[in-house]
Amino acid sequence: MKPANWCMLWVCLAFGAAVSAEELLPAKAATPEPAPCHLVAHLNESKELTAAAGLQLPRWYDLHHRLLKLLTDKAGCSLEVVGSPWPRSLALLRDGKIDLMLTMSYTLERELYADFIGPHYLEETVLVLDKQYLPKVKKLSDILMLPGAVGVLRDAWYGDEFAKASLETEFQPFLQYANSLTQKLNLLQKERVVGMLEDKTQYLEWSRTYPDLAARYKIAFRLHSNPVYIVASRKGVPFAVRERLKHAWYQVYGGPEHRAILNEFGWVLE
Prior knowledge:
single chain, alpha/beta, D-Maltodextrin-Binding Protein, domain 2, 6-stranded mixed β-sheet, two-stranded parallel ribbon, 40% helix, disordered N terminus
């Protein structure tokens, strides 16, 4: 060993200045905190519209609000919730004027403006019908034999079979479009339709709230089933924030907090 090295070693030992290997390495840069973000989310109901229709705000309004809050809290974002009709909210999301929506079925057209953050529910579309017509309606084409129209949500996705049938001239008089779930239920209460296309869980929810309707309207058949997603606006939400949201949802999906919220409302994940 060269004298200079001996000297250096002697100095370190003499003065008790030996340091650990970690202390000799360059200090690691601190992980930067995520930039603050504020997100505006749509829910397809509002207290004002529901009250005006003489109906109760559905429990899934609070459920969806809680799920959005679980997501945004995990992502480090603040949340503002607004209520507006489904078709309007789709347009606002496309234009980047709102940031988040739930219960979105995947389509190629929607992927152009909506980034699919992650699934939150398996939707099962059923035809709910006045029970006197159940014997004659077993499939979608049988709607043509009904004496009235069926309520459907405008711009909703009910599967390929319905999408094709809704374009046929003979079907169109049998479809009564509504802009919200509240409006669709209002049509049923006022007997302006003889049935409605509805998510099975939502049908069970309003059946508990309105037993008179539950006694009259029953499930005729299942039309379609698919997962529905939380989505973010591609135009309104920066890519980095959308990636944060995906990572946050991956962390909470199926976890204790997520399942606790679902259990509180009597819904299941699978």
